[in-house]
Every structure is written in structure tokens, then in C-alpha cells.
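for the recovery benchmark. C-alpha cells below, seq after
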């Protein structure tokens, strides 16, 4: 913990919630979101005793420290904290790695500053008497660490704002629930964890008691954190669930998604289940993270025309998405497993096509009237939401700033649209395109591109040197 105050003046901030009058502060706390004044009241009345400061890492996980609430108020809220910079330069197993410019063995894995974004203070009802704050990484000069996922997204939102545009986002994610606690020795399947439902329950309303209890607890917990859901439904895969959230500001939506995943996993574990956000947890099953995008200028929706059709600027946004996203795949499909979701006629796109209310396309135009929006269907459930959103915003900026015109509208099965480019099918292919795409380097800069290319290479190397169960099953007695 730093003992010297930091200014953090260069880190962009969301506007903090207004401070409620004293008689209303209990209501604000019940709603989940807190101001710093609300937090002080909650600590003074012994409602809160812990504040978790979390730094979103490269994989879209919350990493950080638990602080005594009074220490957080007295020191961390204003002075910030220090955490090891390898939180932004490591693989999913938290293994220190060579190859990152941010930090390494050569530099001694030094600290990075972490400044709390006080506008993200919220109760987390699934952790008793605890408040969560998200943090931003800063360097020794108090400048934002450009490769940090929140900052990667902020940079793209700034580029969009330079065009006089703002994006609203709605996230819709799928995940799977399994009975029992996962470990590498138990695995899943016939001799391991079993799905929490054994049949296709897509749109079903007759859920088993254990699923109904889980949904109720999850919805109540998220509402208590100030994140009421739009809808919850079971999906086509056994044990598969979809949760959709209302549209909100892009950074806010991504912040909330990480908090939601933490709640989903924690509450599943307490119910004797395991929640997984793998893109393809089993052969033939895929889970997506669909990004619904709308554009406004001075609060006016820009995607629809007065007669409800997609506007010229909306078509340029679509064209930019289709042209840019193939070169940005490591940002929305970050590991080897991500690409096993891209299977024909499985509700994950295989062609860079677009269509009207067409779920076979990579970009789907959906909604009516002022709610007309673009749904990017490429992201898997394993995607870091900040990076997925950053890729999509970068694509729209590319299309709009160059007045691009989209290809022919797909009016049938996009899986058979041979004139549309293929989605990258391997992480190796995606990494190469990412490093060599002029659009990618223009939008993100060399530092960010090389950082996330190195992250992809770590995943490629891990898979290349690891013998899998599937290989043993196929070849052990046949080779």
C-alpha cells in the first residue's frame, strides 16, 4: 500500500452517483450503488466492514485485495493502492511469464498503482457486509496503463466520442451449470460432473426446484448490487442459462458483467453446483456473449431512420464491424477453446455476414423503432467484455470515419454464404491477423497489439505442449 498520496489526475472517471439525503441513504444502500458518503454512513453504522478493491485482469476476472472498510476510507479511497503489475501480464493460471513489456522477471515484477473508481462502489450481497470497488491501473507518473482492459475500452470510446458519438450496450451471456464441484480429476461427462438439467430447456418455464432456487437467488443478489437483470432463461444445452441486462453505458455494462460472473459462480458453488463460462465446455455445446450496440448523438438514436430502417451511419458501422472484426479476434475469442464454438448451424457465426433479425450472421440488425440496434454475435462466454466491446467500437469507428458501405445483406442461411469471409477458426490464425491488420494497429497502437498478441501466444504454446484427454482417448491404443 502506498503511503504517499497519488493524484491519479490523468485517469478518466465515470461521474459518481449523487449523494442521497440522510433519510434516503438506507434506500440507496438497499439499491446496491453507493457514494463515498453512503459508504462512510454504512461503516459508521457497522453495516459494512470490508471493501474489496478489484482490478479487472486480461481474462476478465476480478483480482485484488480485501481491505478493512475504515482503512479503505482513510487511506485507499484517496491515496490508492499498489498491486503487482503481473496482474495485467499473466496467463489464466497466474503464472509469471516472459514476453510482456509491462513487467517481467527482468524488471522484478514491480508494482502498479491502482486507483479506485469511486463511481463503481456497490454492495455485493453474496459477500456479507462487503462493498466492491473497481480500480484502474496507473504507472509511476499516474498515467493510465494502456494495456489494462478498462483503459483499452476507454481509448476506443474516446475515439468514438471524437466523432460526436456515444455507444450504449446491452450484454447477453450464456453459461452452463453442473451438479457438483469441478476439479481436474473429476472432470465432466459420464464419470464426472453432470449438467444441472439433462434435457433441452430452451424457453422452458417448468424448471426443477434447484434451478428455480438458483435463479431467484441470482436475481435477488444482482438486484441488491444495483444490477437488476432484464431476463433470465434456460437455453438449448443441458444446464445452459442465458442472462440479459438492460442497455447502459458501455463501460458500466462491462463493469457489471464482471460483477455478475462473480455472483453467478459464487451462488452456484453455494448451491452445490459449478458455473462455467467456457465458450465450448463440451463437444457440440457453445456459450456466447452477445453484444447489443446502439449509437446516439446528443441523446438522439442514430441507427434507425424515421421509417425504422437502418440509417446510413448504421450501415457504415456494420461495414466497419465486418471489415475490422476478423483482425480483432484475440480480443473476443481469446483462447484455443474459443474457436470450437464456431460450428455451422450452431447459433455461432462462421461467416462475416450481416442480416436483418438473422441469427446465422456475425452482425444481426434487431429491434424496432428507436430500439433498433446491432447485435455482434462473435464473442464467446469466455470473452473479456471490455475487450469485446473495444473491438466492436473500434470496428464502428473504422466504418463510420471511412464512410464504408456494407456488403450485400444476407437474407438466408449465412453458414452457406460462400461470398462472405470466414470467421477465424484457430487462435494461431487469429493472432497472425491481429498482429498484421493495419486497422488493428491504427485503432489500438503497437503497445496494446503486442501485449495481447503475447497473451494469445502463451495460450497457443500451452496447448501445443499439453497432451489432452481427447488425444489419449483417440490414439492411446491405436497409434
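predicted aa per position
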Amino acid at each position: 500500500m502506498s503511503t504517499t498520496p497519488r493524484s491519479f489526475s490523468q485517469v478518466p472517471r465515470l461521474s459518481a452517483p449523487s449523494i442521497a439525503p440522510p433519510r434516503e441513504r438506507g434506500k440507496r444502500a438497499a439499491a446496491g450503488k453507493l457514494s463515498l458518503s453512503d459508504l462512510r454512513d454504512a461503516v459508521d453504522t457497522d453495516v459494512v466492514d470490508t471493501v474489496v478493491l478489484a482490478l479487472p485482469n486480461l481474462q476478465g476476472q476480478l483480482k485484488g485485495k480485501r481491505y478493512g472498510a475504515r482503512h479503505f476510507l482513510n487511506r485507499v479511497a484517496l491515496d490508492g493502492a499498489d498491486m503487482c503489475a503481473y496482474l495485467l501480464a499473466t496467463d489464466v493460471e497466474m503464472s509469471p511469464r516472459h514476453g510482456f513489456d509491462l513487467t517481467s522477471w527482468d524488471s522484478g515484477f514491480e508494482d502498479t498503482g491502482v486507483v479506485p473508481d469511486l463511481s463503481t462502489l456497490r454492495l455485493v450481497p453474496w459477500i456479507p457486509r462487503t462493498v466492491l470497488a473497481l480500480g484502474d491501473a496507473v504507472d509511476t507518473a499516474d498515467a493510465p496503463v494502456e494495456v489494462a482492459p478498462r483503459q483499452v475500452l476507454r481509448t476506443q470510446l474516446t475515439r468514438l466520442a471524437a466523432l460526436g458519438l456515444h455507444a450504449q450496450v446491452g450484454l447477453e451471456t450464456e453459461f452452463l451449470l453442473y451438479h457438483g464441484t469441478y476439479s481436474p480429476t473429476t472432470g465432466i461427462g459420464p464419470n464426472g460432473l453432470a449438467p444441472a438439467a439433462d434435457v433441452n430447456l430452451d424457453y422452458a418455464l417448468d424448471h426443477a426446484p434447484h434451478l428455480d432456487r438458483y435463479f431467484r437467488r441470482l436475481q435477488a443478489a444482482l438486484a441488491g448490487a444495483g444490477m437488476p437483470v432484464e431476463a433470465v432463461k434456460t437455453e438449448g444445452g443441458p444446464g445452459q442459462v442465458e442472462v440479459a441486462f438492460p442497455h447502459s453505458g458501455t463501460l458500466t455494462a462491462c463493469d457489471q458483467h464482471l460483477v455478475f460472473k462473480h455472483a453467478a459462480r459464487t451462488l452456484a458453488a453455494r448451491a452445490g453446483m459449478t458455473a462455467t463460462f467456457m465458450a465450448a465446455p463440451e463437444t457440440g455445446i457453445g456459450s456466447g456473449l452477445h453484444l447489443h450496440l446502439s449509437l446516439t448523438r446528443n441523446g438522439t438514436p442514430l441507427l434507425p431512420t424515421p421509417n425504422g430502417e437502418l440509417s446510413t451511419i448504421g450501415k457504415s458501422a456494420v461495414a466497419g464491424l465486418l471489415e475490422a472484426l476478423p483482425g480483432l479476434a484475440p480480443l473476443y475469442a481469446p483462447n484455443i477453446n474459443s474457436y470450437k464454438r464456431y460450428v455451422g448451424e450452431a447459433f455461432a457465426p462462421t461467416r462475416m455476414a450481416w442480416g436483418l433479425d438473422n441469427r446465422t450472421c456475425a452482425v444481426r440488425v434487431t429491434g424496432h423503432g428507436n430500439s433498433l440496434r446491432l447485435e455482434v454475435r462473435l464473442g464467446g462466454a469466455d470473452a473479456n467484455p471490455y475487450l469485446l466491446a473495444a473491438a466492436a467500437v473500434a470496428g464502428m469507428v473504422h466504418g463510420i470515419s471511412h464512410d464504408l458501405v456494407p456488403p450485400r445483406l444476407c437474407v438466408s442461411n449465412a453458414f452457406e454464404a460462400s461470398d462472405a469471409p470466414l470467421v477465424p477458426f484457430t487462435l494461431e490464425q487469429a493472432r497472425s491477423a491481429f498482429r498484421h491488420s493495419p486497422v488493428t494497429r491504427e485503432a489500438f497502437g503497437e503497445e496494446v497489439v503486442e501485449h495481447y498478441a503475447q497473451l494469445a501466444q502463451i495460450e497457443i504454446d500451452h496447448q501445443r505442449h499439453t497432451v489432452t484427454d481427447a488425444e489419449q482417448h483417440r490414439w492411446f491404443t491405436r497409434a
